[in-house]
């Protein structure tokens, strides 16, 4: 309970002045000023967060401004009302089709019937894929007590799906390369198995599972295979075209029955936009209600009403950038511009990817955000981070990252204490377990700050090395305690109690 109390203490103090009822007199347009004031307390995420914000530049300029305008234009719309908001229905259909095209829908091996829908995020996409697999396998094989098999590196959304849809979850360890262990998965398959899972890449370590081998396994047993491309869906297709050694991962792999891909990550779309795709219409199942007094009802996702604004924003993001890109300006300060010019604009990519206009205090930079530019830069920054972290003797890299995530741990230091020091420097990294480690998910926000990140990391390691032990207010003891608790039910209770104290 001391752990829970420590987790909750900070949130309780923040909540003391939160409103619990409507104001007697409305604030009118003055509410915007209050919102700005509240927003000023948010963390400084510009270049400081692992993942989180994938778009480069400032939130009030460039690509940010474009998708904000597109979203606000359709903020009142709801694709549930297809007859009224035909524009949003079209946007959704085109986002799905364009995403499917990136993931092999037009290749002969896909079967030519790939279909899908937009969702609120990767978790909903995964939930729908699992439910669809359950329903499809019940119709195909009569399985009424379904089971699914995942690697321990697979996303926690599968745990949610198992709870929601009454599916037994079998979790298997990863192999020595931190990839899904195909042999271990094969041993767990039985007559109740409906689904196996592969990630491209996995969230913890940025490592791509052997999708082709998993596809052969699923096909041989006549079961479903879902590929989690939530992180990789808008990176790997372009990286493959650029000649990076990317193993097969999409609908060209026989046995893949569904795919999830987040547009709001590397698709640079507004938050709340993902896509779930199915190999054909027989696999996709939707909720059709025929006996309701309110009329005939069809809903292809978990939600009925959905925000049309973010769908429009996703369409705008994809259409504005395209395959070859378009020049989108944003402003930054002279120091930031200096770093960007040295890494991006004055090198071999200047002719194709950028230019600078100096207006003294602030610099207007025109970037061509294309597949080539985006992948070269995030892969380059990832490689730099990977290489320089390897040079820190107290740290080691988890596996061999395939994409834009670098996870690292330590055999001689408490890595969570290192994370606490980094948090004190303003960095927001992700703490992992099995093994204890932290990771950074590289985005365009990190291009101008990679040197600062690595310098702070070296200093954090040195600080912990010279003064081991938790810092005041740090979370290292909590992570350590949670990892050592043999009763995992206690850990679940800890998280639930923490959640109850925050919302």
TrEMBL record:
The keyword Lyase applies. One of its GO terms (cellular component) is endoplasmic reticulum membrane. It is an enzyme of class 4 (lyase). GO terms for molecular function: pyridoxal phosphate binding; sphinganine-1-phosphate aldolase activity. GO terms for biological process: carboxylic acid metabolic process; sphingolipid catabolic process. The lineage of its organism: Eukaryota, Viridiplantae, Streptophyta, Embryophyta, Tracheophyta. SUPFAM superfamilies: PLP-dependent transferases. Its EC number is 4.1.2.27. Belongs to the group II decarboxylase family. Sphingosine-1-phosphate lyase subfamily. This is sphinganine-1-phosphate aldolase. Pathway: Lipid metabolism; sphingolipid metabolism; Sphingolipid metabolism. Gene3D superfamilies: 6.10.140.2150, Aspartate Aminotransferase, domain 1, Type I PLP-dependent aspartate aminotransferase-like (Major domain). Its main location: endoplasmic reticulum. Pfam families: Pyridoxal_deC. Its cofactor is pyridoxal 5'-phosphate. It is found in: Endoplasmic reticulum membrane.
């Amino acid at each position: 309970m001391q752990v829970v109390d420590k987790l909750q203490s900070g949130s309780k103090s923040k909540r003391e002045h939160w409103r619990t009822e409507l104001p007697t007199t409305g604030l009118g347009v003055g509410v915007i000023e209050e919102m700005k004031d509240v927003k000023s307390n948010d963390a400084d995420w510009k270049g400081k967060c692992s993942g989180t914000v994938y778009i480069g530049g400032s939130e009030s300029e460039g690509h940010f401004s474009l998708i904000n305008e597109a979203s606000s234009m359709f903020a009142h719309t709801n694709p549930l009302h297809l007859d009224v908001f035909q524009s949003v229905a079209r946007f959704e259909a085109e986002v799905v089709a364009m995403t499917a095209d990136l993931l092999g829908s037009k290749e002969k091996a896909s079967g030519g019937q790939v279909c899908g829908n937009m969702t609120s995020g990767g978790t909903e996409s995964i939930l729908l894929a699992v439910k669809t697999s359950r329903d499809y396998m019940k119709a195909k094989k009569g399985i009424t007590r379904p089971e699914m098999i995942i690697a321990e590196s697979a996303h926690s959304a599968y745990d949610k799906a198992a709870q929601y849809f009454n599916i037994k979850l079998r979790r298997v360890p990863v192999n020595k390369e931190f990839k899904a262990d195909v042999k271990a998965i094969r041993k767990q398959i039985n007559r109740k198995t409906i689904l196996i899972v592969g990630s491209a890449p996995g969230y913890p370590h940025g490592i791509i599972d052997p999708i082709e081998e998993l596809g052969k396994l699923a096909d041989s047993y006549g079961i479903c295979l879902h590929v989690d491309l939530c992180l990789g869906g808008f990176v790997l297709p372009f990286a493959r075209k650029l000649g990076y050694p990317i193993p097969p991962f999409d609908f060209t792999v026989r046995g893949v029955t569904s795919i999830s891909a987040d547009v709001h990550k590397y698709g640079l779309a507004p938050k709340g936009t993902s896509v779930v795709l199915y190999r054909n219409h027989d696999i996709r199942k939707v909720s059709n209600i025929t006996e309701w007094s309110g009329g005939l009802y069809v809903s292809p996702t978990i939600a009925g009403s959905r925000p049309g604004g973010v769908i429009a924003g996703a369409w705008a993001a994809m259409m504005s950038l395209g395959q070859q890109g378009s020049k989108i300006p944003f402003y930054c300060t002279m120091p930031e511009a200096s770093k960007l010019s040295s890494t991006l604009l004055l090198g071999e990519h200047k002719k194709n990817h950028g230019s600078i206009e100096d207006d003294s205090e602030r610099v207007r930079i025109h970037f061509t955000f294309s597949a080539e530019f985006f992948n070269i830069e995030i892969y380059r920054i990832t490689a730099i981070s990977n290489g320089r972290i390897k040079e820190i003797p107290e740290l080691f890299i988890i596996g061999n990252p395939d994409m834009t995530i670098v996870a690292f741990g330590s055999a001689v230091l408490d890595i969570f204490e290192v994370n606490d020091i980094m948090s004190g420097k303003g960095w927001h990294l992700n703490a992992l377990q099995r093994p204890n480690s932290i990771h950074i998910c590289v985005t365009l926000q990190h291009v101008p700050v990679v040197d600062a990140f690595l310098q702070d990391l070296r200093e954090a390691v040195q600080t912990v090395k010279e003064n081991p032990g938790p810092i005041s207010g740090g979370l290292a003891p909590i992570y350590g305690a949670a990892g050592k608790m043999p009763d995992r039910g206690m850990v679940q209770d800890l998280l639930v109690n923490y959640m109850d104290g925050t919302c």
